[in-house]
């Protein structure tokens, strides 16, 4: 059969280039990881050819004998990994990714325009937790449900649970949502359960970012507090891009119906098989070591930055990610992201507590899961901190020299330079 390189050299060469970029750079995006060869094999397998709408044993298509086996194993492994009793909890492993998993969870538990309350996006929450601005309902979850967020304290960067309680008692959401995309601290699920109970709300935990840390026993497990737990599977869990919804047994029929036929069609069987493999990997003792190393490395990276004079939101981290405050250096997250990218370090700009502009955030989010998978240890992360520090110095120098040349130079050369650098300055 004709190879990819022969059939489509253009795409083949871009895949090749991306593989090299991933290999040769320092991957510090907190939500990314490197999956095993076994997971990649399943993703590229014949399972991608198969339609299997429905659930195990009740499909709308024939030929699902083996698919049923794979999906069953995947569900069993998911429950086992998190120590869940199948009499109490169920799981759906069909969501295509984290966002559809969340939307399906909401439609399972709520009616249109019911109220939800999650962590605000600029405070480190995810879009799907109901994000909207005063001008626009940005996320579909804020279009179809009424959303009022809770926030982190602009002084400490920690979630303000007293304020959460005050808002919850005023807004009376039906669903309180824990979990975020850029929150470097442990969650107080017990407090959130209390708040939810005091207003008759359900508690959902979106553990997307930390599902590998929960599996590795280095983060508090949300299962003893939550009614429903959603997750992506491609972050700290180190699986394929996919989603899962765990729910207490009484909600499972509604969850299953919300995934199919309500939101999705045929499940992506190649992803489900790849997820089953990742769940098996995550249940090995080595994975616990991996999870511990992610945390130790995040701590080392944080300390490495702090000893070089940098400021971290909340003063450090309890998990795999750090929020690096570059605003106090007179920079923006976008500028630092850009300069670091030129030096083959991949990060992302992120808002930090106290930011006033969502378009020009003052921070950079850093994460250790991917480079920990590549075997870096705490000393290595001190070097990474040094690289980041030097990158940041370059950004400051670049900014200063552009500003100086703007003031001092005239003529065509200067205006060309201005055009070239305009992008950087407006970042
Ligand atoms: N939930 C959280 C907390 C996330 O951080 C993310 C992704 O970053 C999602 C949900 C959405 O996942 P996906 O990008 O797979 O749709």
Automatic annotation (TrEMBL):
Pathway participation: One-carbon metabolism; tetrahydrofolate interconversion
Span within the parent record: 67 to 493 of 524
EC numbers: 2.1.2.1
Assigned protein family: Belongs to the SHMT family.
GO CC list: mitochondrion
Keyword Cell cycle belongs to the record: no
Occurrences of domain Serine hydroxymethyltransferase-like (ranges): 5-387
Function in brief: Interconversion of serine and glycine.
Modification N6-(pyridoxal phosphate)lysine occurs at: 235
Gene Ontology biological process terms in this record: glycine biosynthetic process from serine; tetrahydrofolate interconversion
Cofactor(s) annotated in UniProt: pyridoxal 5'-phosphate
Alphabetical UniProt keywords: One-carbon metabolism, Pyridoxal phosphate, Signal, Transferase
Catalysis: reaction(s): (6R)-5,10-methylene-5,6,7,8-tetrahydrofolate + glycine + H2O = (6S)-5,6,7,8-tetrahydrofolate + L-serine
One MF annotation (Gene Ontology) recorded for this entry: glycine hydroxymethyltransferase activity
Top-level taxon of the source organism: Eukaryota
Protein name: Serine hydroxymethyltransferase
């Amino acid at each position: 059969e004709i190879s990819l390189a022969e059939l489509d050299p253009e795409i083949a060469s871009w895949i090749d280039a991306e593989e090299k970029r991933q290999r040769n750079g320092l991957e510090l995006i907190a939500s990314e990881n490197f999956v095993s060869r076994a997971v990649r094999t399943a993703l590229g397998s014949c399972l991608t050819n198969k339609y299997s709408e429905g659930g195990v044993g009740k499909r709308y298509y024939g030929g699902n004998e083996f698919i049923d086996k794979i999906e069953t194993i995947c569900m069993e492994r998911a429950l086992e990994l998190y120590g869940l009793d199948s009499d109490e909890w169920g799981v759906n492993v069909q969501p295509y990714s984290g966002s559809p998993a969340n939307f399906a969870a909401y439609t399972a538990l709520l009616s249109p325009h019911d109220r939800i309350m999650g962590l605000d996006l600029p405070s480190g929450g995810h879009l799907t937790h109901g994000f909207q601005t005063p001008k626009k309902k940005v996320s579909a979850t804020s279009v179809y449900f009424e959303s009022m967020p809770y926030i982190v304290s602009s002084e400490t960067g920690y979630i303000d649970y007293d304020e959460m309680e005050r808002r919850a008692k005023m807004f009376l959401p039906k669903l309180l949502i824990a979990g975020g995309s850029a929150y470097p601290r442990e969650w107080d699920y017990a407090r959130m359960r209390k708040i939810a109970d005091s207003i008759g709300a359900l508690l959902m935990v979106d553990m997307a970012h930390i599902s590998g840390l929960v599996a590795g026993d280095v983060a508090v497990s949300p299962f003893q507090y939550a009614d429903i737990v959603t997750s992506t599977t491609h972050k700290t869990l180190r699986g394929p891009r996919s989603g899962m919804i765990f729910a207490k047994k009484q909600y499972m029929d509604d969850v299953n119906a919300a995934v199919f036929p309500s939101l999705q069609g045929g499940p992506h069987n190649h992803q489900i098989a790849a997820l089953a493999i990742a769940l098996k990997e995550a249940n090995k003792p080595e994975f616990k070591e991996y999870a511990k190393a992610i945390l130790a490395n995040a701590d080392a990276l944080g300390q490495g930055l702090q000893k070089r004079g940098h400021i971290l939101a909340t003063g450090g981290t309890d998990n795999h990610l750090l929020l690096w405050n570059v605003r106090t250096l007179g920079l923006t997250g976008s500028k630092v992201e850009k300069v670091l990218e030129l030096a083959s370090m991949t990060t992302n700009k992120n808002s930090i507590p106290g930011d006033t502009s969502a378009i020009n955030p003052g921070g950079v989010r850093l994460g250790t899961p991917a480079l920990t998978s590549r075997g870096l240890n705490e000393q290595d992360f001190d070097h990474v901190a040094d690289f980041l520090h030097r990158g940041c110095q370059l950004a400051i120098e670049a900014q200063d020299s552009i500003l100086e040349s703007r003031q001092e130079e005239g003529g065509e050369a200067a205006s060309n330079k201005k055009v070239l650098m305009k992008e950087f300055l407006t970042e």
